[in-house]
Amino acid sequence: MLLRRLPLGITVAYAPRGPLVDPQHVPDAIAALRLALAAKRCASLLCDPEVADEQQLRDTLTRAGVRPSRVFVQPRRTLLMDLSREPDDLLGQMRKKTRQYIHKAEREGVVTEETTDLDRFLRVLDAVARRDRFAIRSRDYFVRLLAAFGERAHMMLARVGADDAGALMLVQMGDRAWELYGGWSGAHAEARPFYLLKWRAMMRMRALGARRYDMWGLAEGADDPLAGVENFKLGFGGDVVTWIGALEVPVHALLYPIWRLGAGRRLARSAA
Length: 272
Hints:
By secondary structure, the protein is an alpha+beta fold. 38% of the residues lie in helices and 25% in strands.
């Protein structure tokens, strides 16, 4: 659990993808966290458990004073790939066009490789950000991220000739893998480099022991900027899942209203 200190000695707590318990135990686990935080001048607990969005669980949480949060940090909808399946089975569940583009990239001589060169990775990510008009984090952020995950973090690139045209940053822990950052630069569209990169990334994670591959985020609606990205991802098959989403838990009865008035906006900006 992460604690963030705010003005006036107030803290807020965040449990990303937690608490890590079976769905039926989530209300009790949140209650235990709330009790543990009560002595830390904590106004609010934000938690984001990886459990299905089921009405019975929502009703139980509502009765316990837990409400849906205004702040989203982790994706609520995502696409999961079952890497315990054989590669031919995984290819077979894909859309025909996706499978064709993977093979086309192979015929076009697209090269995929793993790298430790952060600047090379960031050059591609910067091209993706300029093409799709979104902001990216600083180089120092990625340095800290790679240091935190160590050998669990992997950067992969797709190259066409001398040009890096696609990039992916992944994290693999135990039998699970997640895509964190990446995209296609916009170059060499005819060679379909990013299709092959995603496929090779799945195979790399599978070779390392991952059995569940999380593509880390789908759109929340037709107007969501991720709608186009979602269509691309769905071409790879897999299972669409919807988690319950971020939950906000009042911890301190007097401090919580202060948090609701101002500090919530601060956390939302810092998490964007």
